Amino acid sequence: MERWQDRTVVLSRLVHTLVYFLLVAENYHPSHLEDLMTIPASERRISNLQACLGVAVYRSGYYMAASGIPESEVGRSWLLDKAFPNLFRFYQYGRLEGKNVGVGQ
Question: Which of the residues 45, 60, 99, 102 has an alpha carbon 20 to 30 A from that of 2?
Answer without folding.
Answer: 60
